[in-house]
Sequence to fold (287 residues):
Amino acid sequence: MSTFQVAVGDTLETRSFAADSVQLFLYNAAIWNPHRIHYDLPYTRETEGHPQLLIDGPLQGDWLTQMVEEWLGTHGVLTAFAYSNRMAAYLGDVLTGAGQVTECEGQSATLSLTLNNQNNQTTTVATARVRFQARP
Amino acid sequence: MSLLTDEIRALIGTEVAPFEFEVSRNDIRKYAVATGQRQQRYLDGDEAPLMFLFSAMMPVIPLSELLPDGRQPDSPLIPELPLKRIMAGGSEYQVHGRILPGQVLVCRQKLADLYEKQGGSGPLIFMVFENRFETRDGEPVVTELLTRIAR
Fold:
């Protein structure tokens, strides 16, 4: 039985994410995403009308799962995750992840998470559900 | 008046042929480094993080078939709609089991739902796609509901 003590309102340690062009390139290569808005700045500006290369939405979702799993440690597993990108995030943005426990029920808990940019605008929201158990 | 005609609604439930996706330790390691992962089991490729599965959905097709913006052509499950601008709407994942190196996952995709809402600047059509990842033995691993919005 896990001894991890969790209560509604508990907050996760914040974490900042600031992908540079190398990380953005490697991420899109790793997921095999050839969309120019992630590596071709002239195209991104002139054709798509964005001021800078875009940080992938799923990468932001991944970052929030990382925060949950770092908080959870060896005390449980992620059983559900939902995320939605609310506005564009650009290369050069510093995105700060935050999260808190919103529900506890038996051996499960639900967390609410956000990524905010340096202007305190929310780029991504998410919810995660975890189950407390010894992780294999 | 509804934008979703009976003909369009009849497409709900449409599936495409399942495809297989081999999970490799090296691909997991690359993904873990690229995402700034700090969990050693992912960095070592002993297990894949949930969002690694996003890479499974990216078709590997010849360069000559990529669109001018670089992207692969859209899924054939996207119906012909009266609204043409397609936006991402988010994803929901149910995790049934671990994603492990050496696994061959079978991905089954279908158009799970279509519905419409009135947005602030006009009508919106929501397309919900179900992506089921399971083992070759049929054990579910992850189920994703991916929403895209036409406006």
Remarks:
- The helical segments of chain A are 21-30, 41-46, 57-72.
